[in-house]
Amino acid sequence: MTYRFEAISDVHAADFKAMLNEPHVGEWWGEDDYEWRLIQEGEASGESRGFSVLHGDTYFGYVQVWIPNWDPAHLDEEPWQADMPEGSRGIDITLAGVALGHGARIIRAFCEKLFAEGIPRITIDPDAENHRAIKAYQKAGFRTFDERYKDSHSVILMELFPQWLNPPT
């Protein structure tokens, strides 16, 4: 199955907001207008680039790539980002109900896109209780390298390098 990553725009705002109101998404993300505003601010500042995930005309979800250490004040909240090597990027992803079962393939396809752009390392920081997401990230090739506490809960720090996508045989 081929997935497209289309630059986020108002065209898919309603799809994005509807997805955030799905129970399996809403428990991990905030209120839809608030999250939409954060995405727009990240795009405007250059801190992040967001993409709608599509297959044909079907909206599967949202994925973004962000730059660690963009705002030094943010390091108070997530100090682990200070240890990320130059050129590294973080990603966030959320998928609509129609995407269930496609998660690892979508994540892998997006990471392949980033590696083709020259990104040397990708990290993601799921909530430790988000077992569905962690399993999908592992299936896509991510490996755990640490666990940290954020806002009184634990996050699992996971990383992916290009060579892990196609290990030597």
Task: Summarize this structure briefly.
This protein is α+β, with helices and mostly antiparallel strands and 169 residues long. The protein has helices spanning 13-20, 23-26, 32-45, 103-116, 131-140, 162-165; strands at residues 4-7, 48-55, 58-66, 89-95, 122-124, 143-150, 153-160.
Keywords for this entry:
169 residues; 32% helix; single chain; 7 strands; alpha+beta
Structure description:
The chain is of the alpha+beta class and about 170 residues long. It contains six helices and seven strands. Strands 1-2-3-4-5-7-6 form a seven-stranded mixed β-sheet, sandwiched between helices. The longest helix has 14 residues. The chain starts with a strand and ends with a helix. The model has no long low-confidence stretch (mean pLDDT about 90).
Name the helicity range: 25-40%
Order of helices and strands: EHHHEEEHEHEEH
* Count, helices: 6
Rounded mean pLDDT score: 88
User: Which sheet architecture does the biggest sheet show?
Assistant: 7 strands, mixed
Report the C-alpha radius of gyration, rounded. 15 Å
SSE order and pairing:
Layout: E1 4-7, H1 13-20, H2 23-26, H3 32-45, E2 48-55, E3 58-66, E4 89-95, H4 103-116, E5 122-124, H5 131-140, E6 143-150, E7 153-160, H6 162-165
Parallel strand pairs: 4-5
Antiparallel strand pairs: 1-2, 2-3, 3-4, 5-7, 6-7
Helix pairs in contact: 1-3, 4-5
